[in-house]
Amino acid sequence: MTSDAGHHCDDPHHDPGCCSRLGFLAASVAAAGTPVVFFPSRAAAAAPMPGAGARTKAVLLGTAGGPGIRGARMQPATAIVVDGVPYLVDCGNGVARALFLAGLPLAKLNTIFVTHHHSDHIADYGALLLLAWGNGLKTPVKTFGPPPLAAMTDALWTAYARDLAVRVAEEGRPPLQPLVAVHEMSEDGVVYADERVRVTAAVVNHGAMKPAFAYRFDGPDRSIVVSGDTVFDENLIRLARGADLLVHEALYLPGLDRLLALSNNASTLREHIVNTHTSTVDVGRAADAAGAKSLVLTHLVPAADPSLTDDLWLADVRRNFGGPAAVGKDLAAY
Predict the structure, then answer these.
(1) What residues make up the domain containing 293?
(2) What is the pLDDT of residues 76-85, one digit of tens each?
(3) Which regions of the chain does DSSP assign to beta strands (E)?
(4) Does the residue 27 lie in any domain?
(5) Is there a domain that residue 4 lies in?
(6) Which residue has the higher pLDDT, 3 or 143?
(7) pTM for the structure as a whole
(8) Before 67, cis peptide (omega within 30)?
(9) For residues 83 and 219, what is the distance between their CA atoms, to the nearest angstrom?
(10) Do 286 and 248 form a contact (C-beta atoms < 8 A)?
(11) CA 283 to chain centre
């Protein structure tokens, strides 16, 4: 399915400019070689996904779940962009390149919010800091997340000590370590606020990976929630209550066994995946229970099965959620 940039929006609560923004987004991202697909809901067949002209939007930098390399999709990372300023959630492999491709300068990196410490969410945390600094970062970066984020960050200074010292001495760069301020947290609550956004964290259930967090970003015009990795969780539903957009991880159960067919620990891995992630049926339940106005699927498992069309991903979601919904695409904005 392709987007219909010229359709009429019948939703009285939509911004009147949404249809023109949809056309702009589809054209601009298509020019970069990444299609944006908008899916009508069962309740409002003409309602597009908002985002392109909004002051507050989510740019999906990586949408593949799991530690493997998944074809065209990169590992999990999402930028919440408010008035052009990015607030980064997670640092999966490829995040620096994705920020560059999305037109979000590495030198302007200012906040990183880590949901949890599985490798697909933090693989490039240190690399991102190093690459941002190598690309002109001179201003402070605040990082937020569960323990042991502070110890992990401290270890980076040892790992990169030689490179950092030589570049400061020979290239005149400011020392990187004083620019990075780490904030660990273990409970629900507001964790950050500035003149553009307020960020609230909520503990979610991701099995043995404790604590794990979801984040809510309340901007000047929209509220966006990023689920992180979680099962169907009442705390996430409370966090996402009335959100304009819920960016939620998704597991398509019928495709899972094909993914695991070549694994030598298939039964153990299957149990872990099923017990710590959210099926597409339950994603729809969560979005409906929260009263979210729109939904985007990310952290897709399985992520690289060409037989899984967007309609298949969304069929079970639509059993419970009637609002606009889309399968997330790398580098697309919502």
Answers:
(1) 36-327
(2) 999 999 999 9
(3) 56-62, 77-82, 85-89, 111-113, 141-145, 180-184, 189-193, 198-204, 212-218, 223-226, 245-251, 295-301, 325-327
(4) no
(5) no
(6) 143
(7) 0.85
(8) no
(9) 9
(10) yes
(11) 15
